[in-house]
Every structure is written in C-alpha cells, then in structure tokens.
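Good day; I would like, with your permission, to put a structural problem before you. What I wish to show you is a protein chain and, alongside it, a tokenised description of its three-dimensional fold. Thank you for your consideration; the sequence and its tokens are set out here:
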Amino acid sequence: MLTDLYTQRALVWAFANRDFATRYRSSVLGWAWSLIQPLATLVVFAAVFSIVFRIEAPPLGNGDGSSYAAFLFTGLVTWNLFSSLLTLSMTQLKSNGELLKKVQFPAWTVILGASLVQLVQVLLELLVLILMFLWLRNVGWTWILAIPILLGTMLFSQGIGLMLSIVNARFGDVMYIVSVVLGALYFLTPVLYPISMLDGQNEWLTLIIKLNPMSWYVQSMHDVMYTLVAPPALVVVALLVGGFLTFWAGFAVFNRWSEDIGEML
C-alpha cells in the first residue's frame, strides 16, 4: 500500500490541484464558504442546544468557566473531518466515470486527490478553533495530542470511504442509505452533548454511544483541546493504529473490487 501511494503521489496531487481550482470556481465568496457553512451550523446549534435545551458544557481546562460554543465546535471539527471525507469519497468514482472509462489508472487516486482538497477546509476550521481557544485563554500542552487523534480520524474515515465508494459504484442506493446512517450516527456521537450526560441514562443507548468509534475520536479531541486533559497513552495509540488499519483494509478492499471499474461505471 505504501509503495503504491508513493508511486502514484504525482497523480494524486494532480487530481487535488484540479479539484482545488474548480471547487468554488463559480462562487463569489470562494473558499470563504468553507468557513461560513460550519460557522453557521455552530451558531444555530449553539443557540438551540445551549438556550432552548440548556445543555451545559464541561468547565474549560483553564478553570475559567465554560463555553458551549467552543465545546460544540471542537466536536464539529472532528465530526466534519469524518463525515466529509466519507461522503466525498463515495461520489468520486461516478463523477469521474468518463475519465475512468477512457484511461487506465488507479481509481483510488481521484478519491485521495479530492480528499486532500477537503483537508484544506478542515485545516481552516481547525485554525478557527485554535483562535477561539486562544481568545478564551484555554491553552495547554495537550494540544499536541490533537495531531495523532485527527490523523487517526482522517485514516479511519478515508478507509471506510474507500470501501463504500466501490460499493456505491455498484449499487447507487448505498449513498442514500449512508446519508441516513450518518444522520443517526451524528446524534449517537457526543458532539452536541458531553459524554457525562449519559450517566444514569438508558443503559443500551449509553452502550451504543460508547461503542461508537467516532465517540472515542470526538471525546479525545474534547479532552485535549477543551478540558486540556491527556487521554491515556494507550487510547491515543489505539485511535491512530485503528485508523491506519481501517485505511489499510479499505485500500485492500478497493483494489480487490475495482479491477473492472471502467465497465462498472
């Protein structure tokens, strides 16, 4: 896998440059939309869940009160990384169908190229999150641990995206099913609420949420960025290794079932 990735790096970069140049080409605001959309979601959700449903965020790591907006945005950055890479991966084979029919090249390169462009948006969101915490003076050495956590999230979501992309190329209904599942999974991940709210609640629902892999990634980001608490080293390693193994499995499955991709499309 690593050999293939290195060999085809120029082709992946070429597709990334193409997508980067065309993503917001017809838009007046351009890449500003990559921040406007998540910030609009943040404002609406923060207002609804903090004012209407009165969900309280945990105390900030610096001991200076709490901020539901910062808590929510930390979870949104992590969740958006997962959901955006997964959904974007599923659409790339069909959107590049004509090219894949005419030219023979590794089909996964178009997916990874588009994902590189999506990572630019995630980095912009992460920059806003860092500025928010700097303004709140909530800074700590645990921020360093966000790197392996986000890297594990990226590999985890990309691996699942590669698997689903090949299935969606064969069965178009998969994309719609995944959209419904992601909608449910969003509320089964502690993005909008702290994990502590589950104490004393329905045992089966609590178990499902805690077994959800994305709950571990989101909660770990809350720990290192918001509460400034370092998760156990074994957890951080497990998130990174689990992400890598998922990516490796997705890459292997994709290569196994994409040999006739031109005919499939």
